[in-house]
Structures are given as structure tokens and as C-alpha cells.
Amino acid sequence: MAASLALQTSIPLRAGVGLKAEHYREIVQAAPDIGFFEVHAENYMGAGGPPHRYLTAIRERYPLSLHGVGLSIGADRPLDREHLQRLKDLIARYQPGLFSEHLAWSSHDTGFFNDLLPLPYTHETLLRVCEHIDAIQETLGRRMLLENPSTYLAFAESTWSEIDFIAETVRRTGCNLLLDVNNVHVASTNQQWDATAYIDAYPLAHVREIHLAGYTREADEAGRPLLIDTHDRPVDAIVWDLFVHTVGKIGPTPTLIEWDADVPTWPELKAEADRAEAIMVAVPSRKLRHASAR
């Protein structure tokens, strides 16, 4: 099935930002130079209203990436077919260059949680995740991107490493990947493993988008660092360093600045995207890839 899926190539090898209602008017009026915008699919599943009016105007000028948070790919339950159909309709309406979702679960029985919860990396989980991704890609008629999670603990019952689990998912389903560099740093700090080694071992040939974001630093009961993936502040210096390392390995890749809470002014948000774009221009890469070859 994977060989027949459409490849979307309309997102430029530039930096973009998450589209926020606070910036609608400024973007429409000023038409700033930005690579692309990304929106959370669930925020635009209504039939109309101001969000759609602004998004329509912005989509006429800019490429769009669609990021889902509600499919609950890892849940031990069937996919919500009504939700998937709304997603398909939204994609037909706006023709985004990329669609991504999370390696996580957020539903159980009839309940839905306001969190993206981690999975045990077992053979049973692998079969379930792959079955769901196959169904999503078949319904949408396109390859999706799967995002690596931000995690705080590891499951004792896991029999796969996270990287091997993701790589096998890609092999079985033909999906591509969204590499969230901030999630790598958050998880590596919380679980005390090497973030650079993780990126080096990651299936980078399948990465089609990168996410960067800010996090909150706290401490656990033993006083060890505990990072929370809050998306409410600028990208941290360590995450920028990991991004430089990643770009050096795979070359310029569509890169999104995620800032979902305590949203800053438009100039501050755009400055983060400008920094990401400057890195992609400046950092020598050992393997440049072009969108047309994807």
C-alpha cells in the first residue's frame, strides 16, 4: 500500500511557525516573509467562522502543514472514524503539504484525555500502531509523519528501544517522520540518556519535518532535573545546539517553531523562525536533500 501513497512536496526547506489567532490580522495585513504555517487540525474541524476565514486567506499566500493531536494512534481501541473523516475533509479543503500526528495515545473506552500519553514499546503495541497508521494513510491517500514523543518515564515492559520501534513502524507502514528535537532533549534529560546519540541513531532518512519548542525546567523528588514540554517560551540553547547537529546530518528541512501557550508578539515568534532558517543556511550538511526528491 505504501508505494501508492501520494508524496506531498509543497513545504519549502525553510522555517515556519504555528499559526495563532493572536497573529491572524497582522499576518493577513503585513504578509510577512515566512516559510510556512502549521495548524492543529482539531482547531479547524468546524464548518466555518472567523478561524476558517483567516486560514483561507493565509492559505492563499503560504504553504500549510497540518498537525493532528486527536487520532490517538497508540490507543487500545479502534480509530475514531468520524474524527478521521473530518480530518480527511479538512485536508481536502486546505491541501496541506504535510500532515503529522503523534506516537501517543489520548483515549480509552469513551474517554478522551487532554494529554499525549506514552506507549510501552512491545510487539503488541507495534502491531496496533502500524494497523492504525495503515488505516489513516489509506483513508487520507497520503503518507503521514509520525512524531517522536516527549516522555518522562520508561515502561518496564518495553522490549524495543524507542528508535527501533519507530524505525520498524516506518518499515512496515511506509510513513515518514517528524523529528521533534525539543522532545529528544526533554526525554533524554528526564530519562538520563544521550540526546546526540539518539539523533545519530534515528532513521533520519525518513524525516520530513522538524519541530523546535521551549520547555519548563522543574525537579523531581530527588532533586534531579525534570523537563516539561510546555511550548510556552523561546527555544533553549541546548535545543538549538541539537538542531545544528541535526541539520549537519540531514540538511535543510522544513522546521517549525512551536509556541502554544503564553503566545508572544508576532516579531518575537518570527525571530525564532528566522534563527532556525539562518542555521539551515549556515550549517554545512553532509547530505542535502531536496523536496522534489522526497
Overall description:
- By secondary structure, this protein is α/β, with parallel strands linked by helices.
- It is 37% helix and 19% strand.
- Strands 1-2-3-4-7-8-9-12 form an eight-stranded parallel β-barrel.
- Helix 5 links the parallel strand 7 and strand 8 (176-180).
- The relative contact order is 0.15.
- Residues 290-294 have low confidence and may be disordered.
Question: How would the blueprint of this fold be written?
Answer:
Blueprint lengths: L14 E4 L5 H7 L6 E4 L9 H10 L4 E4 L13 H14 L3 E5 L2 E4 L2 E7 L5 H18 L4 E3 L14 H12 L2 E5 H11 L3 H7 L5 E7 L2 E4 L5 E4 L8 H14 L4 E4 L7 H17 L12
Parallel strand pairs: 1-2, 1-12, 2-3, 3-4, 4-7, 7-8, 8-9, 9-12
Antiparallel strand pairs: 5-6, 10-11
Helix pairs in contact: 1-2, 4-5, 7-8
Biggest β-sheet: strands ordered side by side in the sheet: 1-2-3-4-7-8-9-12
Q: What overall form do the CA principal axes indicate?
A: globular
Work out the number of β strands: 12
Percentage beta strand: 15-25%
Radius of gyration using CA atoms only? 18 Å
Distance between the termini: 17 Å
| Share of residues in helices | 25-40%
The total count of helices amounts to: 9
Low-confidence stretches: 290-294
Question: For the residues shown, what is the average pLDDT?
Answer: 90
SSE order, one letter for each helix or strand: EHEHEHEEEHEHEHHEEEHEH
Structural class: alpha/beta
Main beta-sheet annotation = 8 strands, parallel, barrel
